[in-house]
Amino acid sequence: MCGRFSFAIKARIIEERFDIEVDERLLFPRYNCAPSQKLAVISNADPGGLSYYRWGLIPVWAKDSAIGNKMINAKAETITEKPSFRQPFRKRRCLVPADSFYEWQKDPLKTPYRIMMLDESPFAMAGIWDAWINEAGEEIRSFSVLTTMSNHLVSGIHHRMPVILSRENEKKWLAETDENLLLEMMGPFETAPMKAIKISHLVNAPVNDRPEIWQAV
């Protein structure tokens, strides 16, 4: 599962890392990204910049936007089988940029961990998106983060982790049309370049969207 992440990176670094243009007027550091929020993605509909989609995929056929609350993640292993995710996987994919994600260990304290690259550099999680029209005729674009089995590092905390794409696969994820090649990209990210740090329980509340939640415990 991936239910929280952070994306608190300066525009210049984002532009260099992902080879896109960033409108700094729309960019704010996000330390506690949570479902139902509008968050930055790099979509195959606009691969040259950041778009802002709601986290929690609302299928085009949905009658109520509330369904998105149950669709923040899509399992890589079954993505071609689920009607809600099958078409977005084939046609509407995105990168979800992040600098860390959070998981809670199943111990009595439900200890939260911040999981990231060793050098704390940004990375891209694999996502899918859809466009839904509400009763007022407004289009709402929303996304899900794909998940897979955990690597050795994350497995000690949680059995699932987001699909983190290798740098060479990021643009392929947006442009590729061969379904088999896309499926091959969705295994667990290697353990060696990653680290996990115990952090404050402040992260438990999405309203705590500030750097203090990163404080190591």
Task: Please provide a written account of the structure.
The strands form 2 sheets. Strands 2-1-7-8-12 form a 5-stranded antiparallel sheet, with no helix packed on it. The chain has 5 helices and 12 strands. It has one domain: SOS response associated peptidase-like (hypothetical protein yedk fold, Alpha-Beta Complex), CATH 3.90.1680. The model has no long low-confidence stretch (mean pLDDT 96). 17% of the residues lie in helices and 34% in strands. With 217 residues, it is α+β, with helices and mostly antiparallel strands.
Topology at a glance:
Layout: E1 5-7, H1 11-18, E2 30-33, E3 38-43, E4 46-55, E5 73-75, H2 83-91, E6 93-98, E7 100-104, E8 112-117, E9 123-133, E10 139-149, H3 152-155, E11 160-162, H4 167-175, H5 179-184, E12 194-198
Parallel strand pairs: 4-10, 5-10
Antiparallel strand pairs: 1-2, 1-7, 3-4, 3-6, 6-9, 7-8, 8-12, 9-10, 10-11
List keywords for this structure.
five-stranded mixed β-barrel, 12 strands, 34% strand, 217 residues, hypothetical protein yedk fold, alpha+beta
**CATH topology descriptor:** hypothetical protein yedk fold
**Rg calculated over all Cα atoms:** 16 Å
Mean pLDDT: 96
Net shape: globular
CATH architecture: Alpha-Beta Complex
Helical content band: 10-25%
Query: Which structural class matches the secondary elements?
Result: alpha+beta
Work out the helix count. 5
Cα distance spanning the termini: 23 Å
Oligomer: single chain
- Strands of the largest sheet, in order across it? 2-1-7-8-12
Output the CATH homologous superfamily.
SOS response associated peptidase-like
Listing every helix as H and every strand as E from the N terminus to the C terminus, the arrangement reads EHEEEEHEEEEEHEHHE
What composes the largest sheet?
5 strands, antiparallel
How many domains, as an integer? 1
